[in-house]
Amino acid sequence: MSTVLVFDFGLQRTGVAVGNTIVGTSSAVETLQSINGKPNWPGITRLIEQWAPAQLVVGMPKQLDGTDTPLTAPIEKFCNQLNGRFNLPVAQANEQFSSIEAGRRLKEVRQAGRKKKVSKEDVDQLSAVIIFENWYQSQ
């Protein structure tokens, strides 16, 4: 395995990153806007065709005590749909605090000279990068 496509799934937006398991790095790709509250399947299909991943990874949030969140069921449905549509293995990775960490990293970059305001799309993409890092370290 080498290429992994990573999703920070949300009901409004899904951040996407691509990771490489050989070197253990990942990069933000884009943020897909949901379509009428549903995943952006045309965008996901395009990215899977473009990157030809061997593995898909989806961030799964948990409460501090390890219990499910309100997003658990929609994310599990998304994972099942990914597997059914693309016949690729789908792993779930801990994404607890990934958005907070992404916001912190982006603010540090902005303070170091970047003038642009931190957008939700930037946070979603970097969250997907952090989900890859968490997943990769657990392998």
UniProtKB/TrEMBL annotation:
This is Putative pre-16S rRNA nuclease. It holds the Pfam family RuvX. Gene3D superfamilies: YqgF/RNase H-like domain. Coiled coil: none annotated. It comes from the Bacteria. HAMAP family: Nuclease_YqgF (MF_00651). It comes from Leucothrix arctica. Signal peptide: none annotated. Keywords: Cytoplasm, Hydrolase, Nuclease, Ribosome biogenesis. CDD domains: YqgF.
